[in-house]
Fold:
Amino acid sequence: MEVASTETANLNTAVDDGRAEEGGRRPQHLDRLSFSPVQLPHLADYLPNLQTITNPLENSQFYHPSDEFYLSSSDVILRQTVLDLSGNFHSPSTSPHLSYPRAGPRKLIFFDPSHVRAAIVTCGGLCPGMNTVIRELVVGLWELYGVREIYGVKAGYRGFYSGEPVRLNPKLVHNWHKMGGTVLETSRGGFDLDKIVNGIQDRGFNQVYIIGGDGTMRGAVTIFNEICHRKLNVAVAGIPKTVDNDIGIIDKSFGFQTAVEMAQQPINAAHVEAESAVNGIGLVKLMGRSTGHIALHATLSSRDVDCCLIPENEFYLEGKGGLFEFLDARLKENGHAVLVVAEGAGQDMIPRTDAQKEERDESGNPVFLDVGGWLKSELKKWWARDHPDELFTVKYIDPTYMIRAVPANATDNLYCTLLAHSAIHGVMAGYTGFVCGPINGNYAYIPVKEVALAKNEVNTRDHKWAWVRSVTNQPDFGRS
Ligand SMILES: Nc1ncnc2c1ncn2[C@@H]1O[C@H](COP(=O)(O)OP(=O)(O)O)[C@@H](O)[C@H]1O
Ligand SMILES: O=P(O)(O)OC[C@H]1O[C@](O)(COP(=O)(O)O)[C@@H](O)[C@@H]1O
Ligand SMILES: [Mg+2]
Structure:
């Protein structure tokens, strides 16, 4: 099945899929422009006889939809808004023509709300806002579309085949947005494709909302493929959750800002401890399995950080241009220094046994050693060797779960609400195998296959990393 064509096509033909050209709003003035609209998978791709009905919002006593209210497949979000007009577009993803369907309600929908049985599941690690997304899925399905059968699948993917789903309604979830974690519970591992899809079929679910990170989205792709293979009338929507912000294409993930905000407290404490000691170093380890976004953003917003170490920028300790030389100078100059290190940084330098090298969590992610504890001990050894007669203190703070096991802040709560509603509108319109998220500030639908492949790493050659270096004046560890 053709799901994500990124070939350049004439907009006029590309959107003429006979599905959602409601309102006769074809943008004639764009006919001569060439765009590459990404085609979203749709239930009608393999179930051509599905009936449509008018969106119930049309008859809602609280809504008075205008023409602009409903979106059609000609409403798109451009992937790139920052362009190099010299025309050097290095890859299809940097083409100025690449666009994604805009998220929002469609006038015609492919589900009769009275026949919907929706399932919601949360997978992977915690992230602020998971409960808000669940709440808004429940309330949105119930209030906007009149769906009454909504279920929470317990404890991640394994919940589809073990244990009973819980029935959800707006009363039950009304204050969930104020709570950290996920009331539905989550887990790693337990991905058994056949059992999961059988579970979806056996329980009669026809809408599946999957909240999770990069691993979860890889799982969602295979679930979606199997559902297409079995030609089931089941729509699958992913809602990207990652406190590390390591999922690509979307602007940022929900909960990330809350985590960055929470990281300020340990950084402040590390600064106070360092400043109050003679040759004091405050060391803070922040989450970031393979990407340093939390460490980077926390550093940029704090201004008390002297050096930020992330997985994307290898560092070294000894010799010219190394961390020790830099800290030596900072301590001489200021008497103290604050170091922020992402958990995935420096892993190659930490000695480990063969068994430790092979260690994986239930989902198959490598298990890291504690870079903060290792750095603290290396720093102490260095000082004792080079400055045996001078006082020195390292205060190591590891706030790990404290930055993610909290409710979402106001901005993230709003973001979660818009994500949930976007997902509902897309599924009701018959789209499937998609993820919703903001691209350049506007909410879009993206094929889950693309999202599962798109990693969001810190680009140490772009301006954001240059800001870090200009704020900290830290070494580049050999990067030219
Ligand atoms: N490649 C994959 N294919 C299928 N399922 C996967 C894959 N990677 C991870 N999963 C499943 O997705 C769920 C969450 O993955 P995990 O990596 O723990 O968290 P996250 O989704 O937050 O990155 C787990 O149940 C795991 O088994
Ligand atoms: O101890 P846990 O629950 O496995 O979580 C730790 C991991 O979770 C993360 O927050 C990211 O998890 P996800 O991939 O699930 O989003 C990492 O930063 C961290 O390594
Ligand atoms: Mg992950």
Remarks:
- The radius of gyration is 25 Å.
- Residues 120 and 134 are 7 Å apart (CA to CA).
